[in-house]
């Protein structure tokens, strides 16, 4: 937790904890503008640092993407998921907010971790937003009480937007609440449209 970046602390009694998760080879500081835009008087906003130094150069990672494929991606996510879960629980303990008041928003590898965490019980968050992300494997169950929102650029060359579409369809078939927004002209990144959609998805005054 000491390496995580507290972007905003509540100035009134807190109603929500928003945890942001960066992509591979990046850092919490890269999410600072996004986090600042999400600040509200009653909201904690924290950019979480991935635990391991990236083996692709600078920055940090949850798991290595060297030689990654459809099979070993699953294994790598499973291996580090306990650390991810504990990170979320540590911030919940620090802020005094439980899963019903927690939102996870991840970009790329951060989105993979946030999405896969929904396949473990009990649920960690009421809202999960995946930006340019995917499940490591197709979702197996509908997370109880968790709404999922996929935001993906139509021109993403790194993680195909089809993964978001398929995951949302699968989740809805399982009985989950899932929405997907595809953004024309956007590659593997975040723009103003993503911020607008993310802000709405995190709004605690809207039904999850």
Strands ordered across the widest β-sheet: 1-3-2-6-7-8-9
CATH class: Alpha Beta
Count of folded domains: 1
pLDDT below 50 for ≥5 consecutive residues: which ranges? none
CATH homologous superfamily name?
Answer: Alpha/Beta hydrolase fold, catalytic domain
Q: What composes the largest sheet? A: 7 strands, mixed
Helical content (DSSP H or I, runs of 4+): 25-40%
Rg, alpha carbons: 15 Å
The beta-strand count equals 9
**What is the count of helical runs?**
5
CATH architecture: 3-Layer(aba) Sandwich
Descriptive notes:
The chain has 208 residues and is α/β, with parallel strands linked by helices. It has a single domain, classed as Alpha/Beta hydrolase fold, catalytic domain (Rossmann fold), CATH 3.40.50.1820. 32% of the residues lie in helices and 22% in strands. The chain has helices spanning 32-37, 70-95, 109-117, 161-174, 192-202; strands at residues 5-8, 16-21, 43-48, 52-53, 60-61, 102-107, 127-131, 147-153, 177-183. The strands form 2 sheets. The chain has a 7-stranded mixed β-sheet, sandwiched between helices. The chain has a two-stranded antiparallel sheet with strand order 4-5. Helix 1 (32-37) links the parallel strand 2 (16-21) and strand 3 (43-48). Helix 2 packs across helix 3 (109-117). The longest helix has 26 residues, at 70-95. It starts with a strand and ends in a 6-residue tail after the last helix.
């Amino acid at each position: 937790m000491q390496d995580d970046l507290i972007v905003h602390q509540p100035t009134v009694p807190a109603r929500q904890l928003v945890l942001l998760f960066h992509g591979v080879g990046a850092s919490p500081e890269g999410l600072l503008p996004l986090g600042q835009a999400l600040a509200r008087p009653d909201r904690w906003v924290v950019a979480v640092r991935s635990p391991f130094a990236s083996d692709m150069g600078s920055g940090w990672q949850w798991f290595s993407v060297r030689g990654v494929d459809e099979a070993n991606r699953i294994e790598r996510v499973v291996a580090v998921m306990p650390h991810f879960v504990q990170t979320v629980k540590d911030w919940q303990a620090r802020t005094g907010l439980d899963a019903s008041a927690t939102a996870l928003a991840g970009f790329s590898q951060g989105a993979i971790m946030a999405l896969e965490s929904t396949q473990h019980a009990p649920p960690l968050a009421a809202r999960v937003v995946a930006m340019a992300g995917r499940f490591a494997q197709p979702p197996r169950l509908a997370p109880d009480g968790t709404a999922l929102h996929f935001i993906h650029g139509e021109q993403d060359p790194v993680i195909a937007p089809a993964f978001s579409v398929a995951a949302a369809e699968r989740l809805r078939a399982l009985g989950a609440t899932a929405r997907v927004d595809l953004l024309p002209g956007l590659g593997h990144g975040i723009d103003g449209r993503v911020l607008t959609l993310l802000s709405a998805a995190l709004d605690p005054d809207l039904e999850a």
